[in-house]
Amino acid sequence: MNGSPPNEVSKLLMRWRNGDKAALDKLTPLVYEELRRLARHYMRGERPGHTLQTTGLVNEAYIRLVDLSEMEWQNKAHFFAVAATLMRRILVDHARSRNYAKRGGSRQRLSLSKADQFTRKPDVDLVALDDALMTLEGMNVQQSRIVELRFFGGLTIEETSEVMGISHATVERDWAVARAWLRREVRKQR
Amino acid sequence: MTPDRWEKVNELFHSALARAPNLRAAFLTQACGNDVQLLKEVESLIRSHQQSETFIDSPAFEVARDPAKEDQPHLIAGTTIGHYKIASLLGRGGMGEVYLARDSRLGRNVALKLLPPSLTQDEDRVRRFKLEARAASALNHPNILTIHNIEEMNGVSIIATEYIEGTTLRQRLAGGKLQLGKALDLAIQVASALSAAHQAGIVHRDIKPENIMVRPDGYVKVLDFGLAKLTEQRAVNSETESRNVTALRTDTGTVMGTSSYMSPEQARGMPVDQRSDIFSFGTVFYEMLTGEQAFRRDSDIDTLHAVIHDQPAGLSGFSAKLPSAVQLVVRRCLEKEAEHRYENGAELVTSLKRAHTALSGPKWSTWPRWRERWRFALIGVVLIALGILAISWLKRSSERTSLPVAKGPLVPMRTVRLTAARGQASVPRFSPDGKQVTFSSTGDGGDNWDVYVKLLDGGAEKRLTTDPGVDGSPVWSSDGQYIAFSRMSGSPPGERAIYSVPVLGSPERKLYTARSAWSGWAGVIDWSPKGDFIAFSDTDVNDGPFRIYLLTVATRERQPLTSTPEKGANDWQPAFSPDGQKLAFVRSLFDGVSDLYVMPTDGGEPHRLTFDNQDIWGVTWSPDGQSIVFGSTRAGIMNLWRIAPGGGEPELLLGGTQSASYPAFSRQGQRLAYVAASVATTMWRVDLPVSLGKSSRSSPLLTSTAWEGVMQISPDGKRIAFSSDRSGAQEVWVCDSDGSNPLALTAFGHRKMGSPAWSPDGRFIAFDARVEAKADIYVIGADGGQPRRLTNDPGVDEMPNWSHDGRWVYFASDRSGDLELWKMHPEGGEAVRVTTNGGSPALESRDGRYVYYQKGIATPGLWRMPVEGGIEELVFDRLRRDAAGVWALADDGIYFDEIVKGVEMIEFYSFATRRVTPITKLRSLNGLAISPDGRWLVYANLEGEFSNIMIVEDFR
């Protein structure tokens, strides 16, 4: 558990929810470490047994850091709110370093008999998405935050509306337009 | 774009989308007026919006995976890997890709699974995966996918399995729920695969529709046994490890399994056992019946939360036609607490089949043998018994959770669990009015057996005794006011006595003090139907043979009933017939070599009913006195059998692949109580030397839900031979020294056997088997083959061991009248007597100078004498006299076990210093061996013994 007992995170979340801003400062590094560790696992492909659409990394961090039985369920959303921002940082940093390596570095390949016969999945350009998201932030902060929570945090519409304190309908509308815009922008940059 | 401009774009975007598609263009043209840029922008966004889903619709961390490291090699048709030629891609999943390939060596089609390199970097995991996968495949079960080969090729791990044409259950379910008969048929097949695996100590851990293949002919194959091993990690903590039953955890950072099908304990990242599979099975069965996933929620975290806390939507809501028996199976599988679920696949199969039989329509499409086996248990199963127990069960299950429970109609039950304590419960008896059951139990843990009473219509268990002694075999007085029981290891220390206690509680009265304190089966007593006698087992003098006595309750006088004709034979487990005229009892030549007898209670010759030489656990009469029901290993597993009091061929009554013992009938209702028991064993390795004051480093080699132990390490240190009943009957098994590749060496089928011993050249294994009543010594090649019988004496020949030069096989034999040590050349010939004053299992020192041995149950201690004969001497007096086969001889001392202040320990006694050093704590030793180089020990620890009392309602 990386030295951070679950109830410590639970307590900090509780304090933060009750308005203690200092709790967030203490919470962030704990969550960040855990997420980074999980993200490393993810990105190395150490995720056997999972189908892509069902599992969220932040969910896992939450399960690991927070004792479910001791937590009020609403705290989950607040945890995710922290985690989503951190997740974005971690993943985009990772993507940047990978893109760099791609251009310069060599890469180890599987040594099956005929390496040429292997094909690979196209990469998703998280760096381009991050750039676009920053542009969006300049136009509408709320929409950019919704994307962060939904895309990087893996939150549902309901959770997003709960964390941000805005209506369900607003989240849906903003998400729809932000998503349409981001899709187009990322495609442009390719 | 400025925020204002963007705001405008947003407004138009939503307004346009709110209109019908054919009106949007006109609306936008009008709304944008001359602003062509604005029009273009909004139109472009709408087009983007209408696109099919792209990466942004799945969370970032899922699209961000590193393809360089994660991606599978995609093989193209025609590629050759080793002797496999790829034909086509069959599918892909988290555990790799599967191809249809041709095995050019054997000319057959195989399914080839390529494991992602990330999964196979940890050699230890790969080893454990192989172990389980092979073990599961070796079960040769028709519903378990056969694995042909697991190998490394060019750095890639591949698994070649039989190729199944068919669809996955996932594909089947894409079309919605299954028809009930079909669902049950498939479920029974899946459950029987689990049953076989659980019997062998294998837990699947990832039961889900993707792992279940359905062939066009309806046959089911369960895939990927053991594969979940690759993602697990063992928690090793030398302080606590020997106390953990299975300390398997999911890897850090991984909540393993597909979340909708996980068990609550998996979702919590807790250790899992076979009951986790039962839960996962329940979710799959639920989905088959309803077309819905029981715990599927919007996000994974919600799904996990639901798995841990929520009850699934009631089945009756989906289909009013679902029989309550089916609903009950699902509910029982989906119990949040593992101990409330079916104990294993075998129990599940039983219930599913009952539910299936209750359907009038479809019959089982496979396994006609089952029908035969279960005929008696299933005859006339009409699900009517709206049992009070069912109500209490439902009540309990709804009280356990604060969340809403889907309350269907009260469900009639066939078999209910009376006890669900963490500890053990045994030897149930119904009160004369049939309303209560008394039993002996360790309560919620610990080792203190006490007498309990429980009302069948609910309510808490009432504990009648609290003495630290072992209180067992409670029986009712004829008026139901008292319970008599036997107390073993009572006070004064070691005393065995029969007590009675009022059902309403205290005071206890001592009725009889036994002459022999020795416990075991001697503890089983019975109270005559009229209440005048208590039948029990005792000796004339201490340590003499046990026979059945009758205690006249009024006068406290005892009179012998049986006289044991054969030396070494003991009589126990008396059971009065309902009219009190006859008494059934068990005559044992040795532990596990028993048969059933019946005799008139006013004396006369006992009549032998069975000729099995098997374990018998529990004897009772049917209420009409027309049959005797007993628990027996006569078909391998402890099952309930029925025989007429006049004799004949016993018929299987209940059990099948699950353990059932200690039967008891209610006198008026048709209720049958029995004990469902199971064990868990782990073989541990301890590296030597263990330095003083430090805890030993133990690592688990092999874990199973079987009884195993009495092992020996091969002379080259590379293999371990052991006894195990993981295949049902006890056999000799061999595994690698790291616990991998366990293989059954013998196939005697259903006889007690074991005590394997390696020849010094490692080519042969000697062992004992009780093919006839008494054991004989056999020799088999270490790689298998046909066993050769070495001894042929009508007496007992057991516990063989080789001399250091391989010229002799030592064994214990009673051929001279007493148990002495004998030896014989491994090729056969005359047996030579070694000891003259008592001798049992022996080991020769490695230098060939001495032979070390015990003296049987009567004389404690370890003794030795020069190999060439001579004076015997006592080496060490602390060896337990029932420690046969559980000590190990090193060059400088012996390893043995001892209970120190209530804690069982393996210790080392040094010949040089005569000091005893603790090695490790454990729960209960099943076997102990040292490697030939003296560098490591292996011991088998009975990690857990579980037994619960089950009640079959409306038994016929």
Could you describe the 3D structure shown?
- The complex is a heterodimer of chains A (190) and B (956).
- Chain A has 190 residues and is an all-alpha fold.
- In chain A, 68% of the residues lie in helices and 0% in strands.
- Chain A has eight helices and no strands.
- In chain A, helix 1 packs across helix 2, helix 2 crosses helix 3 and helix 5 crosses helix 8.
- Chain A is globular and about 45 Å long.
- By secondary structure, chain B is of the alpha+beta class.
- Helices cover 18% and strands 34% of the residues of chain B.
- Chain B contains 16 helices and 57 strands.
- Chain B has a six-stranded antiparallel sheet with strand order 1-2-3-4-6-5, covered by helices on one side. In chain B, strands 12, 33, 34, 35, 56 and 57 form a six-stranded antiparallel sheet that branches. In chain B, strands 13-14-15-16 form a four-stranded antiparallel sheet, with no helix packed on it.
- In chain B, strand 52 and strand 53 form a beta hairpin.
- The radius of gyration of chain B is 32 Å and the shape is globular.
- About 9% of the residues of chain B have low confidence.
- Chains A and B meet through helix 2, helix 3, helix 4, helix 5 and helix 6 of A and helix 1, helix 3, helix 4, helix 5 and strand 1 of B.
- Supply the helix-strand structural class of chain A: mainly alpha
Question: In what range is the share of β-strand residues of chain B?
Answer: 25-35%
Q: Hey, roughly how much beta strand do the residues of chain A contain?
A: under 5%
Which regions of chain B contain 5 or more consecutive residues with pLDDT less than 50?
65-73, 233-257, 360-413
According to DSSP, the number of beta strands of chain A is: 0
Radius of gyration of chain A (CA) equals: 18 Å
Low-confidence stretches of chain A: 1-6, 44-55, 100-123
Order of helices and strands of chain A: HHHHHHHH
Number of helices of chain B: 16
Largest sheet of chain A: none
Main sheet summary of chain B: 6 strands, antiparallel
Q: Which descriptor suits the 3D outline of chain B? A: globular
How are strands sequenced across the largest beta sheet of chain B? 1-2-3-4-6-5
Percent range for helical residues of chain B? Answer: 10-25%
Beta strands of chain B, count: 57
Alpha-carbon distance between the two ends of chain B = 82 Å
